[in-house]
Structure to design on (278 residues):
């Protein structure tokens, strides 16, 4: 007879960390984001084997390997598609999708829109540094149009993508912004996002000091949002359109019912094969 292993009396952040040592540039904000993710899971006391961390491609998409949870490292831009399918097939699991602004808003932009619209009960954490760090400093969708660099002299001249506006307009049920330099506050925000029903989106400002050293100044620019969170999408829209990108906190916590698939299949495999029989 096999011996039953009792779960620990209380999980700590260390219980969610793998044995792999994170490999990011010195000073990268993703180190503290990883710590905030594991702290949030400990705050919620989620059994590690009941959590799945999904990612795509990029510096921040390495996070699944650094956790002791189940993980899936997908292809570029497709993390939300994989996470959505997983959550619908296994609704009892806690699904957390992680990535960066390049992976999530460029090649993954269409998936972002429709993940918000579908409102599947999962959490999307995007570490936004306004640059493609892994591929050596190209402008990303959230890069300022006048950011001068070797690859885009004088800047791209293209308007920046505004993820919180897009998330709200597309139907995300929880929208917040955090800062990697505030690990405890970020952990609390992530925990709230995971608890909130439906699709939760958390943008985390995570400086890339290698390719954008000026982002060290972000710690002087971020501040608590001057207004309280709301469950009114119209009010949230008015507030976010006046936002300069450095207000931290929960913007919107809605009450839209999450997507749920039917508990029983509407047709058997034999029924479906019969429809296509020649």
């Amino acid at each position: 007879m096999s011996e039953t292993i009792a779960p620990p009396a209380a999980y700590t952040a260390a219980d969610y960390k793998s044995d792999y040592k994170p490999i990011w540039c010195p000073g990268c904000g993703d180190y503290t984001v990883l710590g905030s993710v594991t702290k949030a899971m400990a705050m919620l006391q989620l059994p590690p084997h009941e959590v799945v961390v999904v990612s795509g491609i990029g510096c921040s998409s390495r996070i699944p390997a650094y956790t002791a949870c189940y993980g899936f490292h997908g292809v570029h831009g497709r993390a939300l598609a994989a996470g959505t399918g997983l959550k619908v097939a296994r609704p009892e699991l806690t699904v957390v999708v992680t990535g960066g602004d390049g992976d999530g808003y460029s090649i993954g932009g269409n998936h972002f829109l429709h993940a918000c619209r579908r409102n599947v009960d999962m959490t999307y954490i995007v570490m936004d540094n306004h640059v493609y760090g892994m591929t050596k400093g190209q402008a990303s969708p959230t890069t300022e149009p006048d950011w001068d660099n070797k690859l885009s002299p004088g800047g791209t001249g293209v308007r920046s993508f505004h993820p919180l506006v897009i998330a709200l307009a597309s139907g995300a049920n929880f929208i917040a912004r955090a800062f990697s330099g505030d690990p405890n506050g970020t952990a609390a925000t992530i925990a709230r996002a995971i608890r909130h029903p439906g699709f939760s989106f958390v943008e985390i400002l995570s400086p890339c000091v290698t390719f954008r050293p000026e982002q060290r100044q972000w710690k002087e620019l971020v501040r608590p949002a001057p207004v309280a969170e709301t469950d009114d999408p119209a009010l949230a829209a008015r507030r976010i359109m006046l936002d300069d990108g450095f207000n931290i906190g929960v913007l919107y916590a809605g009450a839209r019912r999450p997507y749920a698939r039917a508990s029983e299949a509407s047709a058997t495999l034999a029924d479906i094969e019969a429809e296509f029989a020649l």
User: Anything to note?
Assistant: The chain has nine helices and eight strands. The first strand starts at residue 51 and ends at 55.
